[in-house]
Amino acid sequence: MSIEKKLTRHLQQGVVGFPVALASSVGVVMASPVILTVTSGFGMAGSTFALAMLIAFIMMQAQATTFAEAASMMPTSGAVYDYISCGLGRFWAITGTISAYLLVHVFAGTAETILSGIMALVNFEHLNTMLEHSGTSWMVGVGLVVLFGILNALGVTIFGKAEIVLTFVMWATLTVFGIIGLIKAPAVSLQGWFGSPLDLSDASGVLSLIGMAMFMFVGFELVTPLAPELKNAGRNIPRAAKLGLTGVAVTMAIYGAAMVHQVANVAMDPKNPTGPHLLDTPMAIPAFADQVMGPFGKIWLGIGLLFAGAATINTLIAALPRILYGMAVDGALPKAFTYLHPRFKTPLVGILVAVVIPCVHAWFIQGDLDRIMPLVLAAVCAWGVAYLLVNLAIVRLRFTRPDFPRAYRSPWFPLPQIISSVGILIAIWYITPPGMHPRDIYLPFGIMLGLTALYALVWTVFVQKVNPFRAVAIEDILAEEFGKVGGHASLIDEELKRVASGA
Amino acid sequence: MLPLVLERLWQPRLPRAYRPGATLVRLAQDLNGLEVVGAEEGCPAYRLPAADWFFRVEERVESQFLLHTVSCCFVLALPGTAPSRPSRLQLQHRGNWQRSGFACLCREGDGAALAGLMALLQQDRDLHTALMPLDFKRCELIADEQGWRLEVEHFAASEVVGSFPPFRRYIRLLSTQKLALLAVMAAVRRVVASAG
């Protein structure tokens, strides 16, 4: 059977349907940093942020067409890595994938660790006041990491199903709170529908807000690794990506509008009116919950946020050590990572590393919320680079492989790729919001990119011994995906014979 | 109505990114050198060339939040008469930080009737040598109406699949682990046969 026929069959078969694809593309809505970004974005700039959100939304829709075309050509679980490999070569693939996904994980994982504790606690006044005084509320997140580290070391994985339910409840909660917040009479005298009126006098201010708004949408491409399992992937992936982006935009716009309708953005310190305002802080969330549903709302949102954070942390601690174990077995990491506890058979060294990274990072920045934002924005830059590389790869494949079948073609080529690339470059350039130093964002971003590029070069040249910039054939990637079963040698080695004769 | 909905929510379902048979395909490469002697319900059976016994491999899926693991369970049918009561003997490593041998524990069945077999298993030097390098999550001898069988679920020969961030990582079974696994099967088979 030709590779084209196999590809067509592969795209049509699958076990999961459109709803799962949609859920995957909107899954990021649950992350605590995204909720905080929306809250502070609307608090900071009101209608101007809404406009930035709209621009970011259009840009991401254009980007979605690129990802959809890539997934229809290469419906593999490697996704982004495979797209860039086939378009630009392994060096860019390793650099793009590691910086955009693995290292972002370290930064975003830390942000999630700190924020999960802070955002869960803000809803419980007495406990929060007590910890806030000692400046240790971020340690609740660290405590969660340590707790899940210990549980995972004991081999306990009891949270699976309950967490899925809680996460969906949390997503629904945001929507419900948003709708009720909009229906109720506004508690704030509003200058515009989204709070402060539209202000276009400072163009760079608008462009910087686009960078922030982008963060609400990055991650929609997480639907693409589903391609091998998805029914009619050629049609469902573009639909899920576009509808998912729309869903996120609508939910967040409702939530943001409701927030500015119900919570006054007062200065935290009345003596310093130019200082931080309520909507710039997580304290806006309990105020909103209280305004919408009273004390019960605060408890509901508090428990939901606590479990959503715990769920994410549990996933990090469960997955990372097993990946490290696998890499160590392959010889890519020190042998210590293959150590398993004699009784529980858990990879203790890997678990320790997975626990230590976010805890030490959180301790290093002392849970300072102002220091999380630059990290989150640095992560957006790295993610943006991966998007740029995917755009370049797909444009290049249009010229080098015009013959290759595409179940979905990005319309008006290359307009969407140009729109999204220009948008990403602008967003990276203007990513520094007012009051923040560009160095705080570009330095971690540069370190991240430089180290991964160095690793990619060393790995491809000295370990894989391949030309790092030669594009990989799409057929090779697909052949691997379609499952090449290794042939069984007809002869067994000497050791095997010894075992057999011993038996 | 509500209990029905809760029951539906709680009933075991396969993870959405699970690809049946994908881990077995990867394992097939690690089991290079063994003969494939057919497949039953998608579970392939292997044997050493010219050996008179074979073992089956089944996939076991474990769901977690936003990720799942697929491990391979090696199932070997054992000779000998099974006890009248369903029984389950568990072999597990001893030690807190370093492995210091292995223990045989009776998890189900008549402990007194199984004491002889347990003692034989625990005293077997070949079994001890073979079990030490193995990173098994579960190693059990199970007796039911179909007779005795050995089930070994190894830490390697498994796949970790995450959806956020998306990754799919197969942890391969090393050649030394494969040999140790075969030696365990051979030793347990011999001990159970000798116990009658």
Describe the protein's architecture and organization:
The complex is a heterodimer of chains A (503) and B (196). With 503 residues, chain A is an all-alpha fold. Helices cover 69% and strands 0% of the residues of chain A. Chain A has 18 helices and no strands. In chain A, α2 crosses α11 and α8 packs antiparallel against α13. The longest helix of chain A is centred in the middle third of the chain and has 46 residues. Chain B is of the alpha+beta class and 196 residues long. The longest helix of chain B is centred in the last third of the chain and has 21 residues. In chain B, strands 1, 2, 3, 4, 5, 6, 7, 8 and 9 form a 9-stranded antiparallel β-sheet that branches. The radius of gyration of chain B is 18 Å and the shape is globular. Helix content of chain B is 30%, strand content 40%. In chain B, β1 and β2 form a beta hairpin. In chain B, α3 crosses α5 and α4 runs antiparallel to α5. At the A-B interface, α6, α9, α12 and α18 of A face α2, β3, β8, β9 and α5 of B.
Q: Key features?
A:
heterodimer; A: 503 residues; mainly alpha; 18 helices; globular; B: 196 residues; alpha+beta; nine-stranded antiparallel sheet
Write the layout of secondary structure elements.
The complex is a heterodimer of chains A (503) and B (196).
Chain A: H1 3-12, H2 18-26, H3 32-45, H4 47-73, H5 80-88, H6 90-121, H7 125-134, H8 139-153, H9 160-183, H10 203-214, H11 233-262, H12 284-329, H13 348-364, H14 369-400, H15 415-429, H16 438-463, H17 474-481, H18 494-502
Chain B: H1 2-10, H2 22-30, E1 35-40, E2 43-47, E3 55-64, E4 67-77, E5 87-93, E6 102-108, H3 111-123, H4 125-131, E7 136-144, E8 147-163, E9 166-171, H5 175-195
Antiparallel strand pairs in B: 1-2, 2-3, 3-4, 4-8, 5-6, 5-7, 7-8, 8-9
Helix pairs in contact in B: 3-5, 4-5
